[in-house]
Every structure is written in C-alpha cells, then in structure tokens.
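I am still getting used to backbone structure tokens and would like to learn alongside you. Please make up or recall a protein chain and show it to me in full. Would you write everything just below, so we can both look at the same thing?
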Amino acid sequence: MASQRDTSTICLFDVDGTLTAARQVIKPEMEEFLDKLKTRVAVGLVGGSDLVKIMEQMGGNKDVIIKKFDYVFAENGLVAYKDGEQIGQQNILKQCGEELLQKVINFALQYMAQLQLPCKRGTFVEFRSSMINICPVGRSCSQAERNQFVEFDTKNKIREKFVGELYKTFPDAGLQFAIGGQISIDVFPIGWDKTYCLQYVEKGGYKSIHFFGDKTQKGGNDHEIYEDNRTIGHTVTSPEDTRKQLTDLYFTD
C-alpha cells in the first residue's frame, strides 16, 4: 500500500549541483524521482539564479515549473512563488541605491581586470532584480571553459580571495558576498541569503523543513540556510548523491 503524503514535511532543494549538474538541464531520471518524491512530501526549489535560468535547468517553461512544485524560489527566495502564484519580489536597486551598487561594480571590474585566468569571456557582471552576480571568467564561457575555470579556481582560490577583498573594501556596506555555483560570486544585502525563503515556508505550517545543497561550507551560498535552526541541512555532492540520500530517507519501506 502506497504511503500517504506527509503534509507536515517539506524538502527544499538548491538547483545547481544538487538537482542538476552545474548549469545543465535536469536529467529525466531526476525529474521522475522528484515526481515520486512529491507523493511523499512537499517539494520546493531554492535557486540562486534568476527565474529564467532555473526554468531552463528544470527543463520547462515558467508556467509549468511554478505549478509543478509547492514553492519555487529564485534569487535566493527574493523572487517567490507558491502553488503557481507569485508571493514575493525584492529589489536590490531600491534597497541599496545606485551609488553603492556602482561602487561595488566598479571595484569588481577593476579587480577582475587584473586577474590572469586560463580564459576570459563575456558578461562579467549580471544585474538581477535582487542581487548582482560577479563572474571572473564571464558567464558566456563554454562548458569546457567553465570546467577549466573550476579547476583553476579550486587550486588558486580566485573567488575566495575576491570575496575577501570585497569584504575588506566594503566592510560597512551591509552587503553579503557569497560564492555561488561553479564560477561566480553573488552580492546582496545581508539577510537576503537563502534563509529569506523560510519566512514563506514557515507560513505553510511545516514541522520539518529539510534543505539539500552542495555549497553548504562557510562562504557558499547554501551555508546560511543549511545552518539555520529552522532547517535540517543535508550536504550533497551531486544529483546522484541527492537521490541516494532521499531514497534512504523516504523510499526504504
């Protein structure tokens, strides 16, 4: 006999590196697995990317994806949907002002201009509704160039040093600088990390909020929600690892 859906439990998922390979489309087997999981618990997405990128990775258009999951949170939850309806939207320009944001962008561009990397491509700064995304290699890099940068960054700690310089230069700006995904740094007001989405989830009355992410270490953009006392945090290493951990949790009967 099939288990009844536990409406008191929700599983929240980072997208990149957790449900999909970085910036890749979700695999059919993971899609099927999530459909199966939704028969057991509530399911939500919490991506750092904007909604367009999350939709691309989840393999569907906006109208389909926002209705498919109980919650969809883009840009750390600053763009929020519940049951297909938008319930929240924040604006970094309104919050911080043009002057501060330009100072950060100018510093970032000057800093990146001095970096010698295996390659540099286009779109080094991406302005999103609720954050600025800074990318030393350039977001238009190919998959092979992305992989090359990941290897170089792991060895030389390019983004870690960059984050350190940003905090040193803007210590009192009220901004957070977090390593996001494989190639970039997210800039947003303090408190606008992924824990921001929990205010909406808590209204759902869930007794257990599980969060699964791959960047849970300090400085990673999953760290705050992973450590939050309202969540049960799970560190994963790949989509395959995510499935394994969920199978152990919900499909051993």
About this structure: Residues 166 and 177 are 7 Å apart (CA to CA). The two ends are 10 Å apart (CA to CA).
